[in-house]
């Protein structure tokens, strides 16, 4: 699968490295252009490449790994028809005041979906700090795998993202629709919770 990242910061580099090691072709992009990523892609290995918007349009799956405020700066048609993983988090102090998001009347991933109207948005990969992500990976004991929750309205898109989560050594936990992603967004008690599937089921049900 060809996976493009919009955003090449720590989230993009860390997840991109894991996806590349799982056998996928990874394309990193940013607002500064391909040349600014030359050194980064060399350090990440042969399956990782620098790209631009034309590469994003050709990819199978796109990961949004930008600050949340940058979403509205992106062309809504850029991700038309794409499976889009929303790995962003909304922080009012950084991203600006939005009453609908602050009041939790609208999930941040629903805001993303409303901007990219024809994209197949799945909320995932936002909840665990990437700084220590490699230490949480497990391929040997499924019961001890840490969870990445996900949410979305497109069942097939969620299945593809779930498989991707499993491929990099984590467990996928489907909490429901994009509106249900309120459960694990940045203003929720479960944000940054590192738990197994059983632990997640207990915590999310309480």
Automatic annotation (TrEMBL):
- Quick check: keyword Cytoplasm in the entry? no
* Domain of life according to the entry: Bacteria
Q: Which InterPro entries match?
A: NAD(P)-bd_dom_sf, P5C_Rdtase_cat_N, STEAP_metalloreductase
| Sorted UniProt keywords | Oxidoreductase
Residues forming the Pyrroline-5-carboxylate reductase catalytic N-terminal domain are 3-90
Query: What PANTHER family has UniProt attached to this entry?
Result: DUDULIN-RELATED, REDUCTASE
What is the name of this protein? Pyrroline-5-carboxylate reductase catalytic N-terminal domain-containing protein
- Classification lineage: Bacteria, Bacillati, Bacillota, Bacilli, Lactobacillales
